[in-house]
Amino acid sequence: MKVLVTGVAGFIGFHTARRLCAEGYDVVGLDNLNDYYSVELKRARLNELEALAQFSFYLIDIADPAALLALFADHRFDRVIHLAAQAGVRYSLDNPTAYVQSNLIGFVNLLEACRAFPCEHLVYASSSSVYGMSAKLPFSTDDVVSKPASFYAATKSANELMAYTYAHLYGLPVSGLRFFTVYGPWGRPDMALFKFTRSILDGQPIDIYNNGAMSRDFTYIDDIVEGIFRLQALPPAGRAEAIDQAPARVINIGRGSPVRLLDFVDYLEKALDRPAVKRFLPLQPGDIPETCADVSDIAELTGWQPSTTLEQGLAEFVGWYRSYYAI
Ligand code: NAD
Predict the structure, then answer these.
(1) Which UniProt keywords apply (predicted)?
(2) Per the residue annotation, which of 25, 37, 99, 152 is the catalytic one?
């Protein structure tokens, strides 16, 4: 089984590739190693992967269609797990073109490569952000999503629509995974947990948006990877190359149990054994105050259930952070 993982030097791509190698898959990873956040951290993740015999890496930008096609021609992947993207809600307000390059142009290049060299399953990252401001809780994949709060969310919604057309026009089996606030060791420095941890250890204030009236469905990385692993192995959702029976699905992967931001900070203070200095600020443009996943689809399809408590997950993150930064 040969699998391509795009965005392999990223947080979720790294963990996914490591799991696939452990399951005995041949894993080809690609990434452009951009400097949206620490390139050193991305290289450190890659170093871990490059120690594994079944892993090989290509420095490729998915906005370059020729490079992608050459890679697909050389390898003939059985499955593709597409995690490369410009992530981050707030950054998308000031840098929309970065999202056009990676999330729209890069995405269509990937679809075209899968069309030219068909694989049995393309699994790609969507996001809980597609649910937008007006969604009711819990967020269900039956909900109509048409009001994105950020440009990032708009590109993720666009990915779902683009993938659907390739499923019904060309019979490409696709699954879009709407991840809910993923956290854990080797996590992203631009996300709240990483920033809070650094600031608390430095004695600096942490920013609490919407004056604390926020909650997030924090989901531990190992649970996310377990969900990705089970879903990539599923047969296509439909068979006919027809618009109403396209082999396409969209699935939530989240804990289904949101935590208030202030409670999250309490847990983190305990895990770090340090108090936080809180600075209360209004809701930021592009942000949504609450998220919560309805995970009945993935449970029915694969038997998946999240198994990591917030206390366990935070302890793992803090242990990794202290050892990685030697503090
Ligand atoms: P990440 O930023 O750590 O990983 C993305 C990787 O893709 C990075 O290593 C980056 O260098 C690479 N990349 C970006 N543009 C590229 C391009 N044009 N060509 C090649 N490589 C490129 O992010 P992550 O947290 O691992 O997220 C993975 C996916 O899951 C993304 O699509 C993200 O939008 C989505 N997602 C993540 C979360 C979360 O909480 N982490 C939540 C919802 C959705």
Answers:
(1) NAD
(2) 152
